[in-house]
Amino acid sequence: MMYSPAIIAEAVVNGLMTGAVYALIALGLTLVYGVLHIINFAHGALLTAAMFAVWAVYVAFGLDPYLAILPLTPLFFGLGYAVQRFVIGPASHGSDSNILLVTLGLSIAIENALLAGFRSDTRTLNTDYGFQVVELGPLLLSKPRLIGFGAAVLVTVLLWLLLSRTDTGKAIRAVAKEKLGASLVGIDVAHVYAVTFGLGCACLAVAACLLMPTFYVNPRIGQAFVLVAFTIVVLGGMGSIPGALVGGLFIGVVESLCGLFLGDSLGQIGIFLIFILVLLVRPTGLFGAKA
Amino acid sequence: MLEVRSLRAGYGGTEVLRGLDLSVGAGEIVAVLGSNGVGKTTLNKVLSGVLRANEGEIRFDGKTLTGASSADIVEAGLIHVPEGRKIFPNMSVRENLELGSYRRGRERRSANLERVFETFPRLRERSGQAAGTLSGGEQQMLAIGRGMMAEPRLLILDEPSLGLSPLLVEEMFTLIRRLNGEGLPILLVEQNVVQSLECASRAYILENGLFALSGTAEQVRNDPELKRAYLGM
Ligand SMILES: Nc1ncnc2c1ncn2[C@@H]1O[C@H](COP(=O)(O)OP(=O)(O)OP(=O)(O)O)[C@@H](O)[C@H]1O
Ligand SMILES: [Mg+2]
Question: Which residues cross the membrane (chain A) (predicted)?
Answer without folding.
Answer: 12-34, 41-61, 67-87, 99-118, 146-163, 184-215, 221-238, 269-289
